[in-house]
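Subject — a protein and its fold
Encoding — discrete vocabulary of local shapes:
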Amino acid sequence: MRPDTPAEYVDHNAEAARLERTAGLYPEDAEHLLLQAAAHLELADDRPRASSLYDRLLTGSTTLENPFLVRALKAANLWEYGHEAEAKAIIEGVRAAAPRDPAPWVIVAEALEAHDELGAAQETFTEAAVLLLTDVPEPPYATHPVLFGRHRVRRMLGLTHDSWDTLADTLHSSPVSLDELHDPKRVWSLGSNNPAELEAEISRLRAELGTYRQALSRPFPVAVLHWPTDELAELLAAYPSLAAEYPSHEEHLATIEASLRELAASGTPNLGIVTGTVPSYEAFAASEAASPGDASLLPQYATTLAARGKAVAWPPQRGAVCWCGSGRGYGECHGTAE
């Protein structure tokens, strides 16, 4: 379930409770699941409970995969319900720690921006860019929000473009330029009585929203299940009834790529691949009181893996190795399929 799903379609409190229960069943995935639960609580406007989940992660005995992300989210949440001093203290701590992951930088910088601390936001985005992108030939996709956010804040401050802003312009793929999207004056056009001006502004806002969601949202992707060669052989040896689903490993791989391409062509966003293992699948079947030989269980298993943060985004980034495990570049392997 997407944590940014509108409230009229989702009971965010119920979804948060479900994710907390799932975290209890899968403690190894508690960090990802509890962050999703906290996002739902924020959308339900229960920010104190969201903070309690962040504290639960930060004070727990398990080593976190990304503690600075949790701290950044906690700071942003605290500021939203009146705890400005504590939020700023956490933000300064994150900046001082200089994490190598761009997400905490973006979150704390946007928290500053949202509360009109534009100078501090610009400084934070710049610190992140210098740390993460100096002498980097091609900025990784995860760092793009750093450059886009920095461009936006500098535009609001009326600063002239520099080399980082030029790089942001180069990376931006929307037909609406960053200068247009980040023009502080555009908000005034929303009060226009001219239908053409309003329509143009709506197009700009839609483009910005799409870029923002693509870069910063944390949805569960629509995931397709992938079995490595050895795992598929073990699966079919144990559960021959699944042979109809997987005539051969080569056909299995081709079907994955074809399915994802078909979903992409239909406009389905946030596509991903999850890799199955027989022990994990058997444990899932047991939790569902079902037989692993039941083919209808396979898509449910894929969805559960995705919900636990196990999906890898598809298609792979340019130059990345193929998802199939061949070791070859995606463009030289399944990326060449018609």
Q: What stands out?
A: The longest strand covers residues 222-226. The longest helix spans residues 195-216. The beta strands are 222-226, 271-275, 312-313. Residues 102 and 143 are 6 Å apart (CA to CA).
